[in-house]
Amino acid sequence: MSSILTNNGAMVALQTLSSINSDLSKTQAMISTGKEVASAKDNSSIWAISKVMESDVAGFQAISDSLALGESTLSVAAKAAETVTDLLTDIKEKVVSAQEENVDREKIQTDIDALIGQVKSVVGAAQINGLNLVKGTEDVSILSSLDRSPDGSVTASDITVSRQDLSTSAGSYGGGGTSLTSNIDADTDTAGTQSSTTASGTGRSTDLALDATDWDTANFEVSVGGNTVTIAGDTDATTTGDALAAAINALGLDGVSAANSAGTVTITNSKGFDDLSISVNGSGSGAGTFDIDGAGAGATGTVTVGQRAETLTFDKTAKVNEGDSYRVTVGSTNYDYIAGKGETAEDVVRGLKTAVDAGKLDGVTTRAAQDDNGNWTLQIDNDGSGSASLAISVAGEDGGTASGGLFGLDNIDVTTNSGADAALGNIETLINNAIDAAAEFGSAQGRVETQSKFISNLTDALKSGIGSMVDADMEEASAKLQALQVQQQLGVQSLSIANQAPQTILSLFG
C-alpha cells in the first residue's frame, strides 16, 4: 500500500544514513586525533585507566630529572673523594721522605701545608646547587620512584645517600648525656673501675728473688726475650745475683736492663710498645729456687713484663653511635674524638690517637692496635725525656657533634722525629677514610644509574601501554573511512529514491 502521509522507505533510508554519518564522524575524529578513546564518552573505563597511567608517566619524567641531578651530585662528590685520596697519597710521599733525618724537613712541611690547603679547597668546592656530600653527616635522599598500591594511593621512594665528611673539623664534645666511660678500660683494670693511670717513662719491671741452700751446686737458666743465659750458683746469693744481672745486661737487648740487690734481680722493660717474656729454670743438687714477681718460691716459672706504654682498651662489645664523645686527658690537656655515623671502635681509637699526636707532647708517642681478644687499644708511651710523669685519664659522653673524616690533617708536622713518626701512621688512616668515602659514593652512583635506566624503561613501557589502549589503528580507520564514504553515497541515493516514490502516485490521477 502506498501512502502520501507515511514514507516508510524514506524513514528507513534516513535512519541508515544517520547511522552511517555518525560512524563516519567517529572515524574522522579517530583519524584527526589519532585516538580511538579520546574522551570519557568513548570508553569511560579505558579512558580513566589511561589518565592514571599518563599521570604516572608525568611523575616518572620528573623522577628522571631528580635522578639526573642526584647522579650529577654524586659524580662531583666521588670525583672530590678520589682527588682527595690522590692528594693524601702525595702527602704520604712527603711524610715518608721526612723519615730521614738528613733532609730539609722545613721545605717538606711547606709542601705538605700546600697539599693540605688543596685538599680543603677540593672539599669546599665539591657541591652542586649548594649541596655538598663531602661535608657534614646528614643523609641525603634522592627521589627514585613512585609506588602505587592496589587501593590507588601513591608513595614516593628514595635512595638514601650517606654523606662522607672529609672535613678537618674537630667536632664538639658531648655533655650532660649518658656516660660512656665504662666502654674504655684504663690500663689493666676492670672497665669502668679506673679512669686514670700514670706513665712515668721509667718502664716496668719484675723481681727475681734468688733463694737456695747450696748455691755452689745450683744452676740458673734464665731466658729473657728469647735469649738464654746460664748462671752457676755461688754460696752467696748476692754474688749469684750480680752474675745473673751482668749476664742479662751483656745480652745488649734494647730497652732491657737488670740490677741486683742482695740476691733480688730486678729486670726492667723500657720498650715502649713491646712486652718482655722472662722464664727461669733452676736445677742442681742444691735445689736452687727463686720467687719470681712475688709468685712464691719455685724451681721454674715464667712471667711477662708489660710494655712501658699505658694502654687504653676499647670494649669490643660496646656499640659506637654518631655523636659518642671520647676524651683522653694526658697531663692536664684534653684530647677529644667524636664518632661519626657508622664508625667503629677502631675509628674511635685511631681518632683519639690522632688527637693526642696533634698535641706534640715531648717524648710521648702513641700506637693503635688490636689485642689478642680483638679489642682495639690506644697505647700512650712516655719515654721520660719530657714530663717526668703524665697522668692519663679517659672519659666519654654521648650527644656530641662528629669529628670530620680528615680530622688531624691540619696537625701533620714532620719537622721533628716524633712528628714524622706520628704523621706516617695518621696519614694512612686519613687515606683509608678518603678511599672509603670514594667507594661509598661509587656504590651510590651505581644504584642511581640503575634506577635511572629502570625509570626510563618503565616510562617507555607505560607509554606503550597507554597507546595500546587509546590509540587508533590508522590502517583500519582508513579502510573504514572509505567504506563509510561509499555507504554514505549509497544512503543518499537510497533516500533520494525513497523520496521519489510518492511522485508516482500522481500518475494514478491522470
From TrEMBL:
- Every Flagellin C-terminal domain range: 425-509
Example of a GO cellular component annotation carried by this entry: extracellular region
Q: Known InterPro entries for this protein?
A: Flagellin (IPR001492), Flagellin_C (IPR046358), Flagellin_N (IPR001029)
Listed Pfam families: Flagellin_C, Flagellin_N
Ranges for domain Flagellin N-terminal = 4-137
User: Where is this protein localized, as stated in its record?
Assistant: Secreted; Bacterial flagellum
Which GO-annotated molecular functions does the record name?
Answer: structural molecule activity
* UniProt entry keywords in alphabetical sequence: Bacterial flagellum, Cell projection, Cilium, Flagellum, Secreted
Which residues lie within the region annotated Disordered? 168-206
The family database entries (Gene3D superfamilies) matched by this protein are listed as: f41 fragment of flagellin, N-terminal domain (1.20.1330.10)
Provide ranges: composition bias, Low complexity. Answer: 189-206
What's this chain's function?
A: Flagellin is the subunit protein which polymerizes to form the filaments of bacterial flagella.
Which family does the similarity line name? Belongs to the bacterial flagellin family.
The protein's name: Flagellin
